[in-house]
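During the no-cost extension, the postdoctoral fellow (Dr. R.K.) reprocessed legacy sequence entries with the updated structure-token encoder. One reprocessed record is reproduced below for audit purposes.
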Amino acid sequence: MWLINILLSFLISLLFAFLLYIKWKQKYWTRKKIPHIEAASIWGNMENPFRQKLGVKQIARDAYLEFKRRKVRHGGIYLFTKPAYIPVDPELIKNILSKDFAHFNGHGFPHNAKKDPLSAHLLNLDGDPWRNIRVKLSPVFTSGKMKTMFNTLLECGGPLLNHIDVLSERGNPLDIKEVMYLFTIDVIGSCAFGVECNSFKNPNAEFKKLGHHITTISPRNKVYNFMKFVAPPVGKIIHVRRLPLELEDFLINAIKRVLDYRKSEGVVRNDFMQLFLELEEKAKANNEECLTIQEIAAQSYVFFVGGFETSATTMAFLLHELAYHQEIQDKLREEIAETLRKHDGKLTYDGIMEMKYMDQVVNETLRMYPPLAFLNRICTKDYKLPNANVTIEEGTAILVSNLGIHWDPEYYPNPEKFDPDRFTEENKRTRPTFTFLPFGEGPRICIGQRFGLMQTKTGIALLLNHYKFLPCENGRYKLNLE
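Re-encoded structure tokens follow.
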């Protein structure tokens, strides 16, 4: 009995010491004398991460708006015991993302190239590994390369229009988000992997399964995101795969088959796989190290994630807004028609890039519904804030709330109103820089930005040239984005 009592006392003491440690960790910002929001529970400013309704994006947004209300330049919150710094002043944001990038050049996300090859992609890499991959991939995403890929993208428009024709004849409301998912899966399958996914007709398409797994909020994905944003050190020890092993094997083998076939048969196609082959030839000619099949697969995977989900949701939100703003829809449709007349009735890359009102409509959609709700950085070496006696310590997490900035009435009056005129050249000049960050900014700006915008604008141009979009009978304008 005495042994049980000793053991019980030890466990209680251990628990008490652990709680004291957490309490000490959650006084970090108090010790730093930085404005902050006090930790609400053992989870900091989070809810229980395994039951929570609000994710990091909403927590960062609410913190940004609270610090803005207090009229302070910055502040701190806690993700469990992890201190996170929230910059509010656009100048601070500029310093972090661009001017003083050397102090904030990492994401700090866990990855394991040996055990989980697909985790070693551009978004997860930091330091020299990130820099080396970024330099190799940058030529893949030039405007010239996008132009060569345009017709490959355009070919995916036929199945999209046919699918909507069939659904329209039935007279049922469109699940536009699902339709856009299928379209972008076809586009990424064709442009990135050189394969026809046929997502509209084949419910068992492997790329469709891959997309479904990525967008489903499963227990695996909850644990993955917790490790990624809240406990990266734990994530490095207990690595959680984002994808099941069978989907990882499918992706790596699919890429290997495509590359081997093209090498053996001399097949050339305007897509990402062809660009990887060109990179390999260039590296060999210069006696440089080539990308491995695992590295190619990892970058292709992140192209897929970024290319299909973000563009699909952006197009869905855009069409939702146009359905409730018919005057904007009509004006955009007229610009599309005028551009087609100018280009002999054909949708071309140059035509897409010429559409100024299209650009405004897309930008306003990205403002209201940013694909990156927040930007994550890690302080890689101590940084003294300009004009302040405050040092951001190495290892501190940085959260730049795009959602908060984009809905800040100081920069965007009546932020809940959909107004493309915010993005006329004249109106853009009235706002400080670094107050529109849908793709990030600085050296770690989204490398696929050009492709994402091309895909989105092309999809919208195809749809508005053929259809008029209206709200469904039982629809509601205000969406629950929580």
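Strands lie at 74-79, 82-87, 375-378, 383-384, 391-392, 397-400. The mean pLDDT is 87. The remaining legacy entries will be reprocessed before the final report is submitted.
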